[in-house]
Design a protein that fits this description.
Blueprint: H1 2-27, E1 32-33, E2 36-37, E3 48-53, E4 58-62, H2 64-79, E5 84-88, H3 93-107, H4 110-113, E6 130-135, H5 151-159, E7 165-167, E8 182-185, H6 189-195
Antiparallel strand pairs: 1-2, 3-4, 5-6, 6-8, 7-8
Bound molecules: zinc ion (ZN).
Length: 201
C-alpha cells in the first residue's frame, strides 16, 4: 500500500514536470529576455532597401512604411547638412544569433551581453522596423558611444519623431544600455502594435 502511494506521488510529480516543460517549449519563447521583448521575424519578401552599409557590404532593409519614412528623414537631414547613414536594419534569426554569441564571448555571460546585443528572437531588428543609424561625417562613431556627440544624433533627437522614429533604448529604467544609434519606427498603428510601446519613452 505504502509503496504504491509513493509511486503515484512520483508519477504525478513527473507528469507535472513534463507538462510544465511542454508548456514552455510550445510557444518557443518567453515574452521577454534580459529586457528585450520577443519579436516575430518580418516576411523578407516585403522588405525594401534603404541603402548599403559600406563597412559590412550589407544591404540595409526595412518594411515599406519604415523605409519610406527613413528615406524622407535622410533627405530632410541632408538639406541641413546632416548625413544619416543606415548601418543595420532587418536581421534574420541566424544573423542575430551569431552577433549574440560573439557578444557573449566578449562580455563573459549572456546577461551581460544582452545589455548590448539582443538575444536571437528578441531583437527589434527582426521586425524590419528598427535601424541602427550612423553619422556620415563621423564613421569612427558608428555603433559607438560617441555617436551621442554627433550632429546626426542631435538632429535625430529633435526631428526623428516627425518621421515616426523614436529611440528604443534611452537607458534609464531599462536593463538594456543606452543605444543612441538604435531607432525604431512607430509611425503607424501597425508598427506600434508590433513594438508594443511600453511607456519607456
Ligand atoms: Zn540596433
Amino acid at each position: 500500500m505504502k509503496v504504491s502511494r509513493i509511486y503515484i506521488f512520483y508519477a504525478i510529480l513527473v507528469l507535472l514536470l513534463v507538462s510544465g516543460h511542454s508548456a514552455f517549449s510550445d510557444d518557443g519563447a518567453s515574452a521577454s529576455m534580459y529586457g528585450h521583448k520577443h519579436h516575430e521575424t518580418a516576411p523578407e519578401s516585403g522588405l525594401q532597401s534603404v541603402g548599403e552599409y559600406r563597412t559590412t557590404g550589407r544591404i540595409v532593409r526595412l518594411l515599406p512604411a519604415a523605409a519610406n519614412s527613413f528615406k524622407r528623414m535622410q533627405k530632410e537631414g541632408l538639406r541641413h547638412g546632416i548625413k544619416i547613414i543606415p548601418i543595420s536594419g532587418f536581421r534574420r534569426f541566424s544573423y542575430q544569433s551569431s552577433l549574440f554569441e560573439r557578444a557573449v564571448k566578449r562580455y563573459g555571460s549572456r546577461e551581460r551581453a544582452a545589455r548590448w546585443v539582443a538575444p536571437p528572437g528578441y531583437s527589434e531588428h527582426h521586425t524590419g522596423l528598427a535601424i541602427d543609424i550612423g553619422d556620415g561625417a563621423r564613421p569612427e562613431c558608428n555603433v559607438e558611444a560617441c555617436f551621442e556627440e554627433t550632429r546626426t544624433y542631435r538632429w535625430l533627437r529633435n526631428n526623428a519623431e516627425r518621421f515616426g522614429y523614436e529611440l528604443s533604448f534611452p537607458g534609464k529604467g531599462s536593463m538594456v544600455s543606452f543605444e543612441p544609434w538604435h531607432w525604431r519606427f512607430t509611425g503607424d498603428s501597425k508598427s506600434r502594435e508590433v513594438m508594443q510601446t511600453d511607456g519607456r519613452r
